[in-house]
Every structure is written in structure tokens, then in C-alpha cells.
Amino acid sequence: MAAGSEATTPVILAAGAGGEEGEHVKPFTPEKAKEIIMSLQQPAIFCNMVFDWPARHWNAKYLSEVLHGKRIRFRMGMKSMSTVPQFETTCSYVEATLEEFLTWNCDQSSISGPFRDYDHSKFWAYADYKYFVSLFEDKTDIFQDVKWSDFGFPGRNGQESTLWIGSLGAHTPCHLDSYGCNLVFQVQGRKRWHLFPPEDTPFLYPTRIPYEESSVFSKINVVNPDLKRFPQFQKAQRHMVTLSPGQVLFLPRHWWHYVESIDPVTVSINSWIELEEDHLARVEEAITRMLVCALKTAENPQNTRAWLNPTEVEETSHAVNCCYLNAAVSAFFDRCRTSKVVEIQAPRTDGECMKKEELNVYSHMEVGQTGSQNLTTGTGKPEAASPFGPDLVPVAQRSEEPPSERGSIFGSDGKDFVDKDGEHFGKLHCAKRQQIMNSEKAIKEQIASNATTAPSQTFISTDDLLDCLVNPQVTRIVAQLLIQGRSL
């Protein structure tokens, strides 16, 4: 039985499966849903939580009428199975209306307009990261159609949300988000999510090029990996799920994700939920910004587009980046002063902490841990008894298969990868995942494998250096040292 089944949620009239009116009770109260979100450390699907949301009917046709000719930016990518990720820096961009997108998506051979240079059979289009406040700037009443308050966040609605509209094959490259956890409401069509836990970070070959604040990308195309170049990826624990309309995916903090549209048109709405850990993460991101901008602009001041993600307007000066870093550290201490006292321990190179260097700082965040320890804590809250059941389905780990045997989205049968077998629930209770190996050993193996697979590649580029300097584990240690130094 799913947790929250005894909740005293008011009865709501909703259309049943056949369209008839009937009584429908949400499986979780807002308080219980928030408790689950703040304690669960693995991805899961919420079912039967949004049946009464007006946004449930926001298909692309409806949105085209609401936006009434408003031009939005679409990212254009190739429908290919290359082993190289299609980062946003390698894509083309088109300004078009949703009506023009839908016409192009019907595969009309004599199409004109902004999509005329893009063969529908070879390209996909994605209107991604569209913030409601910009998209619906003159229609703010529509914000109320999204009710994240049902998940325990009072007053949270479309104002804190983003919209995603894509065609078949549209996808985001594999990455993790530095801030918060994520709630994703699938409105139209289906999307397949490839997920990897935080402790797999060394196996995902993280990079900050292209640079975008709060996004750590993987060098790997996880749906068609080059295992000769990235052999450690074989150790990654892939989880897969197909998100269908009416479902809401909960993605915990620092889970890697690659998301692909597997239907002709998909519409999604998401909201990133702020967490206490974000205060330290902002210090880490400020460190990353300073290092990336300093080294890349020194390398080639005239070619920022090659390394700066299109979501970043322009590179910031060193002086501005210094201000960002100082502001992030100050904000961290401001937050600490309002919280309870814990001990921050200075990290050592072996991944342990120097117990004699303990310092009292006002904070209830677990910043005394290092490296992957912090990356595996999810929301950093203790886990309760399993809440899983018919209305909260865990995302199951998938056994890997050779890349040549893994079907592409263009030959998909649409199989839902949420395993609802009761035996899976026993295996996937909220217990923390056992580490394959500690992060230090994983990094050493990664370096060794790179050396053996490419012995002739001895030249070290700026990007190679940055991959080390702004590795998530390194920036965590640097942030801790900065905070420790200001605490003396």
C-alpha cells in the first residue's frame, strides 16, 4: 500500500478513464508529497497527482493559440546516432511560432518559412528552457494552471516553471544540475529518461565545456557511447523510465539525466526546487565560472561562442566573477548564521577529513564531507520507510546491453520502463545504493584507462586542464577550503 493512502485529502470530482465524472482522491497530501520529495534519494514517478490541473490540457495546439503568433527560439539538431553528444553549441537555432513548428512537424514537403532549410526526416526541433515569466509575460493568469502546491510548496505555480516543446528525437545531452531537485510534469507525448546516480560521476566523464552555470555535462553520448574512448562508462548504473502524460517525475539532487522525445510532439513542464545544499553549491559554481572564464578568454578572447553555452548571454569579466564569488561566500555565511552549529572538517587529499582542523560554523548542511560523499546525499535528509506503491513508482536500474543492440527512438515500441513488479519494490526501497568503489579509486582508473587507450595523445589542452580544475569533486574541496579559511 502506498504511503499516504490514509490521508484525509478532500474528494475532488475528476473525469475517469472513460471521460465520465467520478470521485477521485489524490494519493498524497501536499505535506506527505513534500516529505517524500525531501527524503527520497532515487528517482520516482508520481501518479494521479495532477488530474485536476488546468495545465493537463496544454498540448502544443492549445499553446499555439494561447501564444497567438509569439515567436520563440527552437534548437535544431540532427536525427543521428553519433557517439559525440550534440551540445547546444553545435546546434542551429530558429525563431518561429508554434503554428509554424506544428506545420513543419506534419512533414509537409513544400513547407516555407523559418524551418524551410531543415528536412523533417533529418532534423528535430526543441523549444527548451522556456521560462513562463518570459513566455507568458502578458498572460500571467495562466501561471495558476500549474499547481506545485499539491506537492507541498505553497504558492508555487507556473511563475517558477519552465516549458519544453519538442519533436521526435529532440533531446538534452547528459548532464547534472548543480542546484536543487527537479519535478517534471509530462503533458503531451512521451519522453524517455536515462538516469545515473551521483556516485557514477567519475564514470560519466564530467566536463564544464560548453560552460553553463549550474550544468555539468558528460562527454559521453549515453545512448550510443564510445566505450573505447570512455571505458569507465561501463560501470555506470543506468536507470530508465518512459514518462507518460499525467505523470510527474521526481529527480533528486545531482542525478545525471539524458532526456529524449519519443513521440511526434512532446510538451513538459518542470520546476527546480531549491534545497539547503544550494548555498554551498553557489560557491562552487562561482569558483567554476571564475576559472573557466579566466582560462578560456585568455586562450582565445575572440571566440567565446565555441565554449560558452547559448544559454549564457556573454562571458563575464574577471572583476565581475570575483564579485560573484565573494557574494556567494557571504551569502553562505549569512545563511549559516541563521542555522545551528555543526563542524566543518578540512579535507585531505586522501578523501578523509583532518579531525584536528574542525571548525564551528553556523550551518545544518553536511559540508564536512568531501567529494562523492556529498554528491550521493540526495537532498541530505534521512530516509523514511518506503513510500512506493501504485501511485509512487521507483525508476528501475536497467542491465546494460551492447550499444549495437540498444534500440533508437526511431524504432521504439514505446515500452514503459517503469517496472511495476512488486519484487522490484523490495529491491528498490529507500536504502542507499552501495558504492562500486570510492571516488578516488574511480578517478585513478579513469586516468589510467585514458592513458592506455590513447598513449599518443600527450598534448594537454586548456579544456583538459579545466576538466581537472573544475571537476565537481575538486570544486567542492576548494569551496570547503575557502569557507574554512574565512572561518578562522
From TrEMBL:
<dbReference type="InterPro" id="IPR013296">
    <property type="entry name" value="HSPB1-associated_protein_1"/>
</dbReference>
<dbReference type="InterPro" id="IPR041667">
    <property type="entry name" value="Cupin_8"/>
</dbReference>
<feature type="compositionally biased region" description="Polar residues">
    <location>
        <begin position="370"/>
        <end position="379"/>
    </location>
</feature>
<comment type="subunit">
    <text>Interacts with CRYAB and HSPB1.</text>
</comment>
<feature type="domain" description="JmjC">
    <location>
        <begin position="124"/>
        <end position="288"/>
    </location>
</feature>
<protein>
    <recommendedName>
        <fullName>HSPB1-associated protein 1</fullName>
    </recommendedName>
</protein>
<dbReference type="Pfam" id="PF13621">
    <property type="entry name" value="Cupin_8"/>
</dbReference>
<dbReference type="InterPro" id="IPR003347">
    <property type="entry name" value="JmjC_dom"/>
</dbReference>
<comment type="function">
    <text>May play a role in cellular stress response.</text>
</comment>
<keyword id="KW-0963">Cytoplasm</keyword>
<feature type="region of interest" description="Disordered">
    <location>
        <begin position="370"/>
        <end position="391"/>
    </location>
</feature>
<dbReference type="GO" id="GO:0005737">
    <property type="term" value="C:cytoplasm"/>
</dbReference>
